[in-house]
Amino acid sequence: MSDSEFDIKYVANLARIALNPEEEERLGSQLGDILGYVKKLEELDVSDVEPMAHAVPLDNVLRADEVQPSISNDEALANAPKVANGLFVVPKIVE
Amino acid sequence: MMLHELTLNELTARLAAGEVSSREAMQACLDRIDAVDGSINAFMSIDRDDALGQADAADERLTKGTTHAEQPLLGVPISLKDIFCVKDQPANCSSKILGNFRSPYDGTVVQKLREAGAVIFGRVNMDEFAMGSSTENSAFGPTGNPWDAERVPGGSSGGCAAAVSAQECFGSIGTDTGGSIRQPAALCGCVGIKPTYGRVSRYGVVAFASSLDQVGPMGKTVRDTATLLGAIAGHDPRDSTSVPADVPDYAAGLEGDIKGVKLGLPKEYLGEGIDPEVRAAFEAAVKQYQSLGAEIEEVSLPHAEYGVATYYILATAEASANLARFDGIRYCDRVEGDDPFALYCNTRGAGFGEEVKRRIILGTYVLSSGYYDAYYIRAQKVRTLIKRDFDRALEKVDALITPTVPYTAFKAGEKTGDPLQMYLSDIYTISCNLAGTCGISVPCGFTNDPKLPVGLQLLGKPFGEQELLKIAHAYEQSTPWHNERAAL
């Protein structure tokens, strides 16, 4: 894939990362190269192969539905940039 | 011999005998850091009072008769990669984005180290969010290699390897997603083990790629890493991917000959691109194993050449999801915006370094509508093929033997402009994470001019750390390499 096909603006937007024009150009072209490299995987016939998400097969891991100790509200908020009334403050979402 | 020059196990013997105190050992590390860390920058921060306080508490337990049979790391100063949550301490992952973050709790590995009596001190440098192979991707400046500060220590656990090899601590705990323990161990001349996926809990470790990440120890000798692994391994109900399997006494199982052990030489790993001096050191190590009675057999990993491509799709995909949490709402240095969307974009644009941005964007792309099957699912299928290769090879032999890295430590700045070249430095280490098995790097010699360490990698069967450590220990004890120290 050539870098012109890689829409860096679109993908950076999906990833919620603001890029300056210089970063857009550099990352766009590097990602074009990397995608060119990973195209290598197309050489393989994988039609009869199961995809693998984890190396160790574990079935659903469940625990008893009981309350466990957890951090306090104050501790949970201690690293937040903005808090009020025991809550995280975010910009207005709904007009 | 100066106190900081002892191995971890030499130190515990002296602590047990009452010949030295934990405070003296901790102070020796701090003095050593003051003397040499200016040239290598392995440590980003140290809470000295906290460290000495922990050492005093350990001395009290020693005085009261607590033994190292009860607490194997009692009084031993251990440093941690900046990726572990330690209550009230920073966990920056060498990123700007986390600002003044302080962990509200101890992760499981930290808890286990405390239960084993370790003195946990210092945050050592890493590639930002463990993404990199040189520790140059750190918002806190690069770390230098103790053998030549102009060169990289490897990465992403470069601070761990540099701190161990510079004798600034008696062991260090890192993480390995595609080689991040073994590659820096090789480039700095220390020992590093990546346990089998599921062997060590990931609770309280900032996640990069959850199906590949594994915590592991780094030390001056195989015995030191065995002692550390014994302390941190085991099932944890708070990490549902940790495996409920017994933890052997790794340190107790090291001795004994390795006659008749079968080592597989993957023919695909010795093609072009390997430095001639690295190849020579590796071939000498293979001969040494033969003289110890091991049988060497050629094996094939036919999909080896697809490892790096598979990894960079799967690891970045998982990273793009994991790092979504760094959004400026619950933590992080927030950069305001008119709406949440702008706030996220601004916070992440200002806070993440370039490699992290590159990987999140790549991961987002391979998971995006229209590309998911072509990239992500295809890579998951190739992962199956790579795992099958390992399963087949490890049916025939007890472990695989390879170089850890195709070359020695490179100069800072040499590969930063070409991410793909940087990625290829993990070519021998990456498949082990995809297959989910265990691997270790041990020193196997030096290049001549400049004198730089070369690493030997052994890859074992899933949950076969015991056997792997024994095989590595036999080699180490029959060669002089682990006794060499960088002149700093």
Would you mind describing this structure in some detail?
The complex is a heterodimer of chains A (95) and B (488). With 95 residues, chain A is mainly alpha-helical. Chain A has a domain at 1-44: Orthogonal Bundle (Histone, subunit A). Chain A is built from three helices and two strands, in the order αααββ. In chain A, strands 1-2 form a two-stranded antiparallel ribbon. In chain A, a hairpin with a 2-residue loop joins strand 1 and strand 2. Chain A starts with 7 loop residues before the first helix and ends in a 7-residue tail after the last strand. Chain B is α/β, with parallel strands linked by helices and 488 residues long. Chain B has a domain at 3-260 and 473-483: Amidase signature (AS) domain (Amidase signature (AS) enzymes), CATH 3.90.1300. Chain B is 38% helix and 12% strand. Chain B has helices at 8-16, 22-40, 48-63, 108-115, 158-165, 182-188, 222-232, 276-291, 307-322, 340-351, 354-367, 372-396, 419-423, 430-435, 465-477; strands at residues 43-45, 77-81, 119-124, 172-176, 191-194, 214-219, 262-266, 295-299, 399-403, 438-446, 453-460. An eleven-stranded mixed sheet of chain B has the order 1-3-2-4-6-5-10-11-9-7-8. Chain B is globular. The interface between A and B is large, with 50 and 75 residues.
Comma- or semicolon-separated keywords:
heterodimer, A: 95 residues, mainly alpha, Histone, subunit A, two-stranded antiparallel ribbon, 3 helices, 2 strands, 32% helix, flat, B: 488 residues, alpha/beta, Amidase signature (AS) enzymes, eleven-stranded mixed β-sheet, 11 strands, 38% helix, globular
**Gross geometry of chain A:** flat
Give the CATH architecture of the domain at 3-260 and 473-483 in chain B. Answer: Alpha-Beta Complex
Question: What pattern of helices and strands is seen along the backbone of chain B?
Answer: HHEHEHEHEHEEHEHEHHHHEHHEEH
From the alpha-carbon coordinates, what is the Rg of chain A to the nearest angstrom?
Answer: 22 Å
Helix content of chain B: 25-40%
Total number of beta strands of chain B: 11
**Which CATH C-level class of the domain at 3-260 and 473-483 in chain B is it?**
Alpha Beta
Largest sheet of chain A: 2 strands, antiparallel
**Mind telling me which CATH architecture of the domain at 1-44 in chain A this is?**
Orthogonal Bundle
CATH topology of the domain at 1-44 in chain A: Histone, subunit A
Structural class estimated from helices and strands of chain A: mainly alpha
Q: In terms of structural class, how would the helical and strand content of chain B be classed?
A: alpha/beta
- Beta-strand level of the residues of chain A, as a percent range? under 5%
Order of helices and strands of chain A: HHHEE
Number of strands of chain A: 2
Mean pLDDT of chain A: 91
Query: Shape of chain B, please?
Result: globular
Please, how many helices of chain A?
3
For this structure, what is the CATH class of the domain at 1-44 in chain A?
Mainly Alpha
Number of helices of chain B: 15
On the 0 to 100 scale, the average pLDDT of chain B is 97
